[in-house]
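Q: Predict the assembly, please.
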Amino acid sequence: MPLKLLLQLSTRNILRHKRRNGLLLAAIIVAVGAVTVSNSLIRGMQYDMADAAVSNLTGHVKILAEGYRDDPNIDKNFVLAENWQPDVAAEELVGWAARVRVPAVIMSERGTRGIQFVGIDPDQEDISFIGQAAYDGERLTDGSDGRVVIGRALAEQLETTVGRRLVIITQGADGLNREAGFRIAGLYDTDGTSLEKIFVFTGVNTLQKMVGADVFTELSIRLVREPFLFQFKTSMIEFFTGLEVLDWRELEPQAAAMFVFADAAIFIWFFIMMGALIFGLVNTLITSVMERVRELGMLRAVGMRPKSVIVQVVLESSILMFIGVACGLIAGWLFILWLGEGIDLSRFAEGMDAFGMRTTMRPIPLAGDMLLVAGLSLLFGVLASLYPAWRVVKIKPLEALRR
Amino acid sequence: MQFYGVRMRCAVLMMLCCLPPMAAGADETAAIPVPDAYDIIAGAIDLNRGLTSYSEMSMFVHRPEWERSSSLVAWTRGREDALIRFTAPAKDAGSATLKQGDKMWTYTPKLNRTIRLPFSLMSQSWAGSDFSYNDLSRTDNLLTFYSLRVANVEQIDGHTVYTIEAVPHDDAPVVWGKEEWVVRDDHVLISQTFFDQEFEPLKRMETLEIKELGGRMMPTLMRMWKLDEPDHYTEIEYKVAVFDLPLEDRMFTTFYLQSGGRS
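A: Predicted assembly structure:
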């Protein structure tokens, strides 16, 4: 039997029950649309988390002295050649930053807090959150800036503000305590408050002078493409013998685990949605087949092959699925456009912060994810029609006609 | 830190050393109409140098909900070395703090452990009082990190009383905006006030009683409190003071801190 004729039969069968099939179509559209939107949000979250992890002074690759992670102090340091540049093509590199980072105590008239005191060259820091943050007051001007910038949340805890003096105590390279007064140049503002409470920044040369050693404790390198990471890391391991070369997945294992989990979450969502939908689809198809027992029996009696009957049912299901998926993707896409820059969750900033997420949920629709949803949905459509089709094949023409 | 220096100086002077008064300096300074602010402060500070002291005192910590008094004995040598030991109440007896320069250790008999204080703990309250470890430990750098000037001179009860305003240098490791000392011409510290960087007074130590003890006029009752919490204060009262007595070197060692001289 020609496929064209079968297609015609299937289409007419669908159109015969507009309300029933319309409802089914609506269910498919909603399911596919919802999966599309949730996938894009999960992707957005995933990319944000990775970005936040990399921006958290980590970079894609970070070089540390052996033992710094267990006992972070100025003794665990390394020297960097003055004209050092990462051995990598310029188009693969976003930037790199060498820093001094030591634990310290910060004091104002009204409060004392433990912090991470980080000496930076502000020109290098467009690779990390401190280069991208919003500021009250001024930024650090260069590596020998003798002022500090602190987070807004820390300023609130210490009840201080721009222009005031803070005292910072840390351990020098000789093991003795160093203390010095610093003026606050500005307050930085990040999503959430955990970073703001931990990191205090000053010029790298200022901090080197304070601890009395012309060295660095960390070097972060940010790449353009994540896939290039492995190759790059290998070359860095060869270059920095005796130092620890770590990528962001090792430094931020929680973020890395969440990143992997997000891939799985996309499938979990899809299977939950489709699982629910499939039963509706099977139910509708069985109903429509069972009410046509006489007519299918007649077709069989006049010589239609069982194979053609199966194809007809599968086609019916596939047409429904195809239209549903197409409309669902469009609906999901429109919804994503409507969301635009994302959903503002700043009311829950504390909680989001704990997961390393930003306060805006930004949808990132990926073509690959959409194709995956479309492909799997059509496959599910075919699978769902197999049982009804099998029921049809079992119809005996003689019995059907006698009903 | 300088301000801590000052505060500590004050605390060390008054709490530990009990030396500031030094009647000897009184006449010389009184002879000059308005002595230099540095001289007034340095005079009070330098009088402690190289001297030893033994004192018995009681500390009274007051809070709205509770109050507590303890007894302490203290030995000092110069400005660098000090040993303070609690003698009462029974639950605190034997707890001791040793200072060598800017290093400090504490000993708790219940744990039988001596702990070198990490610098992050130095700003914490000492023995639950309104004094911090920093108050006890800072060696003085008031003269280095502050600009001093005599803000006021007045005659009270036959004494010339100087009010000295100390403003930290811009890069000084000092959290205070300024500090104000009121010192009598015989070097008795009358009060010491700490201001924040908006020049609002924040906390104050005040001498409530001046008596002759150990052969010299000295503040015998002092109170330290935060001005916005007048219900929270700590008072130190000197009961016994002996000056310039011979002290053995071993008194200011961690071994002695732990053994309490029982060895």
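Chain B touches chain A through 20 residues (CB under 8 Å). Residues 2-259 of chain B form a domain with the outer membrane lipoprotein receptor (LolB), chain A fold (CATH 2.50.20.10).
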